[in-house]
Amino acid sequence: MSIGQASQIIIGRAVGAREIDAAYRQGVKSWRLGMLVALSISVVIYLFAEPIMQLFTGNQEIIALTKRLFLFSILLELGRATNIIVISSLNATGDVRFPFICGIIVMWIVSLPFSYLLGVYAGLGLVGVWLAYIIDEGLRAVLMFRRWRSKVWTTKSMF
User: Fold this and answer.
1) Which residue of 28, 48, 63, 115 shows the fewest CB atoms closer than 10 Å?
2) Contacts of 122 (CB under 8 A, 6+ apart)
3) Rounded to an integer, what distance in angstroms lies between the CA atom of residue 45 and that of residue 129?
4) Going residue by residue through the chain (159 aa), what tens digit of pLDDT does each one get?
5) Is residue 87 within 8 Å of 27, Cβ to Cβ?
6) Where would I find the H helices in the chain?
7) Is residue 143 within 8 Å of residue 85, measured between CB atoms?
8) pTM
9) Between helices 20-47 and 2-16, what is the axis angle to 10°?
């Protein structure tokens, strides 16, 4: 989140100064940094999942389930980092409506039904809900990053 907030400030300043290419490059640079940080931290957490969980419980079933969720979280965090950073970048340019509407639509059309389908209907329980969450974050990340790369946001800022 701190990378997203810092990026938002830098990009907002660049857009205000009409330095569109600098704003675009900063958005991509911040996204890459965020991906590196998210990947690094989530891999480390996965590698230390058992010792971390043993601080909270001795139940091996819970530890095994959580370790699986930590593995899935590597993908989840890449999508989440993309969304946080790119949405902050888009907001800094004045492109607020697209991320908002896209978020609502994807959450209602993907996250909610897939959580039910995978978690309840397919019998995957919490793992199914987590997979639905990964699909939701991943789809929104693709949409947001495509929006950033398209530079449609350059028409949204108010100079």
Assistant:
1) 48
2) 128
3) 20
4) 999 999 999 999 999 999 999 999 999 999 999 999 999 999 999 999 999 999 999 999 999 999 999 999 999 999 999 999 999 999 999 999 999 999 999 999 999 999 999 999 999 999 999 999 999 999 999 999 999 999 999 988 665
5) no
6) 2-16, 20-47, 49-54, 60-92, 97-106, 112-114, 126-150
7) no
8) 0.92
9) 180
